Amino acid sequence: MTKHSFRNTIFGLIVLILLIILPLVLSEVQLNIAIEIAFFSLFAVSYNLLLGYGGLLSFGHAAYFGTGAYFTVFACQFIAGMPLPLAILIGGLGGGVMAAIVGFFCVRLSGTYFALLTLAFNQLIYSIALKWRSLTGGDDGIGFDKPNIHLPLVGNVDLFVTSNVYYVTLMVVIISIGLLWFVLRTPYGNTIACIKDNEERAEFIGYNVFRSKLGLFAMAGFFAGIAGSLFVIFAEFVSLNAIGLPMSTEILFMTFIGGTGSLLGPVLGAGVYIYFTEWVSDITENWEFFLGLLFVILILYANKGLISLIPIRLKVFWNKKTPVGGER
Amino acid sequence: MDAYIMQGMHGLVYGMLLFLVTSGLTLVFGMMGVLNIAHAAFYMVGAYFAYTLVAWTGNFWICLILVPIGVGLIGAFVERVLLRKVHAFGHAPELMLTFGIFYILAEVVKWTWGTYPLNVQPPDVLAGSIPFAGATYPIYRLFILLISAIVLFILAFIMQKTRIGITVRAAVFDNEMVDILGTNVQAVFLGVFCIGSALAGLAGVVAAPFLTTYPGMGLEILIDAFVVIVIGGFGSVWGALLAALMIGELQSFGIMFIPQLALVFQFLLMAVVLVLRPQGLFGETA
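Predict the joint structure of the above. Result:
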């Protein structure tokens, strides 16, 4: 075990313990914010697969988040006795399959064309959700009657207790991000980095660029769908907000604010974004103005996001873990 | 039969308005490779400026001159001070920057004018209706057609017949080469961006009495405008015209026949065009 990975393990354990004792310290309101940060972190990390790792600017990532949320609700609604973990998985699969279908058309393109096509598909999916009232409830949305979780040793976990929701969310988010961390370290992760740096060359060496990018897109959709499921477990309600364009841009903001160059940058972004909006919206009604201002300033002066402003010594913990740097 | 003509006219009017918005957008994209999302904000700001100017002076006509100048200046500021800085970073940051500016301007609009829809009265001359094809038709809509047609002709004339137009077309084709040949491409960029913004402002003025002036109007037209330039082909004014008319009619008749799916059609059309012909109907190369 090298010095670095030892320090990382210690650091990771400390963070984990802090996260676990968090509900004991925080008030109900703050705990709700923490849950929000948790599932948005996963959403942002999944978005960063496209923006940071794939170099693909998408304006339609909410489509898969929303699909995941709706699918989880449908799963519990139509299939009696659906266990919650399976419903979360179904949400993820819904997002992943939707992303695979859309990606089939999108990933051949790049740059602005890609951005526009993802936007168009987001609008398309949104319009369908809006018009298919009998299924989605249209503008009104649908409530989610969440089942409890039965664990072998613990027994029934009551999901109407906020701290339980927190632990479920935290666990799913950590497992998901861990999976992604692992996937990005495999040769597949290197292929993605190679394609991002020089697509023509990757093609020439013999990688199947289309399939790799499609896989990345579907994977991003899958984890966005998982994040959507977590959202609906938290909110107990899903409406068109979850699937609309504003959500797509919100996730772009979070990811970019945190930094696209590393796996955990978007986590920082989600935290800062949600705290920032909570804090500024207390002070002024026009908080979105300051958010836009922050965004523009970051693009102009620190386009690797807030995480790039953290001093190098600290950054060792955050950045060095992933071999696939989303460096621009 | 009359109903069809009417619906066709509505589509034509909206299509021409859409063209007015899109022409500037597509020019900027063709030249600089920047899809200027802030364009929709310029359009919205134009409409709100018109509201304020009409409230102050009671004169709609001066808006047609003053507002495009004002919005054009904002556009020049954005290009010179902000956009040029991120140009070196590539297209994605540029796109995100214009998106950030859109976001900020939309907030400024809400801040200044509130979130309620505002009404701009057209001047008395244009307020009524005239007999048309066996029914009556609002004069103001015909006025929109007139203004858009005038802009189209001026634009076509400048692009095809003048030296500036030749430079711009050459820069759309290959701006590095134009730069090497001794033209100050930076200045041309600034000029085109300024004119493009002014056109967005003009479209805002024209749209203000026709559509409601409210903070969501930017996003609404933005999405239609994107669809138009994708279908028409990036950088092509004629493509923008054709595609704008297509979208106008598609929406108009779509709402008449299948209201449920009217929203979906244009995105389907866009997706089909992007898949089959990524460079758009009139585009050069993708």
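Chain B touches chain A at residues 29, 33, 35, 82, 85-86, 89-93, 95-97, 99-101, 103-104, 106-108, 110-111, 219, 223, 226-227, 230, 234, 260-261, 263-264, 267-268, 270-271, 274-275, 278, 286 (CB under 8 Å).
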